[in-house]
Structure to design on (832 residues):
């Protein structure tokens, strides 16, 4: 079954806004076996939209259109659908009454223009909107089913989920695309692909075929596995085996197979041991602590942290000896280690992390160019100290530094 | 002049990836007066792409297509264009030689499949690619000009800029859409629109018409002004006047008219006075310091910061009296103020900030629900202390807290 998704709104034809509804819709459609073959963004132009709706409906089984159902003149989706499928618009007083009551419940009066939202192409089914005034519409066209939904994701998503559950999923009879995501850090993309490709290559032609996509995002790599299966049970069996095989060749570089970010994985490892953590941060300026504390419940293992941007602060707050800084430079493994030890001692935690580096764009030297970052992790009676050369702009260097620090800790905790 | 942008690649029809090239292309096209009327995402399907290229070229002056120019079987853009515009493909040995030499310079051997990238629809102009193997192509069709560019933004962007400069801009003769962005914080969107709408409403019909879009993004509002003008000078004159008018009604809530984020504005204000800053952070966990230090050169005014997640840490690191915490609660204005004072005293800086709140999802009470955040800013001999009720998930609460703290500081620095 093929689908086309159309996002309506001139604001998505500016340099400032992009369509994101289609990602949510694609996810739900894939889950019941629909392939999205085409996506479009059309402005608030009734003729153009009518033309695109006809075109999409002629060569797909399903067309999902979001936006353009508001009350103003700019909202042209109802008119365009009426034109495209030759279904005259008629007022549905039940909708108008519903909108009027919605306003009255909030102590407001419905404006005359809102009556437009009660216009329905003859024969269309009205889809109630629990979070806004614009109802959705379901049209059974000669070739394709056409769904018109409001643009705001908060309104659109539950309406589309209901359509999937009530109208589309029953036809799929359990068949669909089922996914898993492996998150990996600490190895380059080419390295991961070289190791994984011989494993995932044959899956394309397996009984339950699995396709694999590699996405390299800042400081990590994601392997997306998509199984096309007749049921969730079939898919789970194939995907479980696939994940186990990939873990076999990728080893401990896989940090998550359930969608959790690295900071949440670290949180679980610390919680499991009842350990606490502290950090002394220079170039990352608090980003590591901010990521650790972004996890709900992190107060169970985070007590305090130290941002030591200046050399003086490294000495004052973490006890790094000034002559060590003079001898090795602020960006050096001994200083990173002294920062980790100082943070752990002064915060009285089980784990201490020290990060010191050159985030750029200035401050690099021939010996220590921008992107040079020394990181130390002390955890129980183990320690790990490394110097990295990160590539990219300032925000890339700082993010990758926090990612590397958390990964060093993860590996220490898994070993010990 | 109307344009259509087509992004080619099946990966952009998954739930994981969206087209972003079109935002860059739209920005450049708008600047020379082109209106983008339609955007499409098409998979790696030669028939579908040929159909969409024909369709787009029939009703636009320009079609810009990115992606699908690689060497593999999945890369179908050359074939689709040849089919759509009835221009047979011919091998261009100059391109093949260029690709072979590119590989050899890197000590690699060109693979046979790379010859595909030398195929050119008869009559097309080849656009060199400085950052990759796939050349771009310019086709003069009967209705529209069609540009085919590679997908990676690093390769696509400079090639498109060259096309704009050499082929498209000369025809525009200076005419184009010119923009300004006002960034605003500390007031709700409805309030901003109510104040600004009477000002910007009439601009649509001015001699140099200006259209206005409001975008509410996390913790701030952006007003985008777009002037359609015959020259940059005309646009600048109209936009300068427009910005001044909006500043008149919006006052100090406008923090930037040149695209700079709030942390950069704060950085300039501190630099101008030669002042330094420190912060004691509880619920934001280091995010304020991370944002302040994300600005290049921030070591001129940032020395150190304190993440005090536990009550004990607030006392140890910032000297907040335990009986004050017992009397008022950790989330309270007196504690926020004591944190700001403690940070300033212990870091010996000119400015101190204290943030304490409930980021959620747990920890809220009837009296202090999730989203309650007390913030204190001390700067020179001035101080500002406020308690906010932020709405949204944990990351929304922490981001808005840092935004509010920086805005309080901005207002204090502007007053004094």
């Amino acid at each position: 079954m093929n689908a086309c998704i159309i996002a309506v709104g001139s604001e998505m034809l500016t340099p400032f806004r992009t369509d994101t509804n289609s990602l949510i819709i694609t996810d739900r459609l894939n889950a019941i076996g629909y392939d999205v073959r085409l996506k479009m963004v059309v402005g608030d132009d009734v003729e153009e939209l009518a033309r695109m709706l006809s075109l999409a409906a002629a060569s797909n089984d399903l067309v999902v259109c979001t936006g353009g159902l508001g009350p103003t003149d700019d909202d042209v989706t109802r008119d365009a659908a009426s034109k495209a499928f030759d279904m005259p618009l008629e007022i549905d007083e039940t909708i108008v009454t519903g909108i009027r009551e919605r306003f009255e419940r909030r102590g407001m009066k419905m404006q005359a223009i809102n009556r437009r939202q009660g216009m329905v192409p003859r024969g269309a089914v009205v889809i109630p909107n629990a979070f806004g005034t614009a109802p959705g519409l379901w049209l059974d066209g000669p070739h394709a089913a056409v769904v018109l939904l409001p643009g705001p994701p908060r309104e659109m998503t539950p309406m589309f989920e209901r359509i999937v559950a009530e109208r589309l999923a029953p036809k799929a009879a359990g068949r669909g695309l089922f996914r898993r995501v492996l998150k990996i850090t600490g190895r380059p993309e080419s390295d991961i692909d070289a190791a994984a490709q011989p494993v995932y290559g044959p899956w394309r032609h397996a009984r339950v075929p699995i396709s694999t996509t590699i996405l390299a995002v800042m400081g990590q790599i994601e392997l997306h596995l998509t199984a096309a299966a007749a049921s969730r049970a079939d898919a789970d069996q194939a995907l479980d085996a696939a994940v186990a095989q990939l873990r076999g060749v990728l080893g401990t570089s896989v940090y998550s197979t359930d969608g959790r970010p690295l900071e949440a994985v670290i949180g679980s490892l610390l919680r499991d041991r009842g350990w606490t953590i502290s950090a002394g941060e220079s170039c990352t300026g608090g980003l590591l602590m901010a990521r650790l504390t972004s996890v709900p419940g992190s107060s169970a293992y985070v007590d305090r942290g130290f941002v030591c941007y200046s050399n003086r602060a490294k000495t004052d707050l973490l006890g790094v000896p000034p002559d060590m800084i003079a001898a090795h430079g602020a960006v050096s493994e001994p200083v990173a280690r002294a920062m980790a030890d100082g943070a752990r001692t002064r915060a009285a935690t089980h784990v201490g992390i020290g990060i010191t580096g050159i985030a750029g764009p200035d401050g690099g030297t021939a010996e220590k160019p921008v992107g040079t970052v020394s990181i130390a992790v002390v955890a129980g009676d183990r320690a790990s100290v490394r110097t990295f050369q990160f590539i990219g702009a300032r925000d890339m260097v700082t993010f990758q530094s926090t990612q590397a620090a958390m990964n060093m800790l993860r590996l220490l905790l898994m070993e010990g």
About this structure: DSSP finds 13 helices and 17 strands in chain A. The longest strand of chain A covers residues 220-229.
